[in-house]
Amino acid sequence: MKKLFFFCIIFFITVSCFAQKQEASFPLIPDFTKNDRILIFAPHPDDESIGTAGVIQKALDAGAGVWVCCYTNGDANQLAFIMYEKRFTFRKGEFLHMGSVRKKETLDALKFLGVGADRVFFLGYPDFGTMRIMLKHWGNTKPYKSLFTRVSKVPYKENLSWGSPYTGESILRDVKAVFLDVKPTKIFVSHPADTNGDHQSLYLFLRVALWDLEARLKAPQIYPYLVHCARWPEPRGFYPDMALMPPEWFMNFQIHWMSLVLSAEEINKKNQAFDFYKSQIPYNPRYLHTFARSNELFGDYPVLKLKDSSPARVDWQESFGPEAIIKEKDRDKDNVFLFYAKSEGKLYIKLSLSRKITKGVTSSIYLLPYSRNTDFADMPKIRLAITRTRLRAYDKKNRVFISHAKMSIVDNDSILIEFPLASLNFPDYILSRARIHTDAVASDLSAWRVLELE
Fold first, then answer.
1. Which residues belong to the signal peptide in this entry (predicted)?
2. Does pTM top 0.70 for this prediction?
């Protein structure tokens, strides 16, 4: 028993020292100034403190302006509700009550950190539903109806978006309104590789809103922060001397990580801010405090620039490799790679495995094109459903036939897709993601990438 205790102590000290040593190798976020206007987007109430409580403190100390925008009211966390209220219910009013509780918790936490309620926006879009809105609810499609609150428009009267239908047009309009109000120089937003759909969709809406406002708004710097990722961060609990490091499979693949080093006082204040989120603590008491580390971490994937190339010599751009796999059963059995290229009016997509593709391999590829010449609401929202023998295409909720779209198996370990750019209205950008499942690996390759077509 003594030997085991001694080993555990040595292991903890080694891990702590290693983490701090690695942190020093990351570039630091530039210092804030009094001319900065900081806008923090939080998918749910508490994400603003998880990802950026240190940012808030340092920016305010520098004299910068700080604003926070909460995307949802976080009204769909049923497990947290049960633990907090100590009762079980599926009544619509109780979910809305939880949304109001979480809003107040966030306002109290931000007041403690130094941000007044007059600089906090609440939109109130559906918790656990915004990705479906991005992918399917545009144009003539009916507004999304929340599985939990069972409403199809923003129900919170005090929110900026009260009464807005749950559609892509509503969210995009409101995100742009916040941008034009704040005119930010720096934006902190959820990460495109986060495993939570609301976190992913907020990043996507932000990208589209900024493209729409290119002529009216000076381009701000964007700093994505990660919250949800399998088995991360570890260990759980308050360890103020440990650094927050990227998940191991993100360490060496394309993401340009940057760090914000916090003082002991800033760490403690961040940790104290978590205590205001009383509804979220009972069901996972140590989780929030895990993010009160010696630094905060930010990073994004670079834009993949697709230049026109010859069909005989395709210029492939790698989107991710094995380091980007989020969920898996056995890392040693399969590695998955995704590549994009552009040639003669076609988008080429290649999915490669480290073994033969069998009937057990299925995948979905999402293509959300953006054009400066067409309203984003009118652009297709494509999902390609792929098996070894079949390629099917869907635009929002409807199956569609795409002329000249082709799929083939190459060398028994790769799927090659040719997709006509005319079917995407010859976009300037494409937001894309792949999800792949095999009989050996359950992979959720949830990192959305920005493709720029040159």
1. 1-19
2. yes
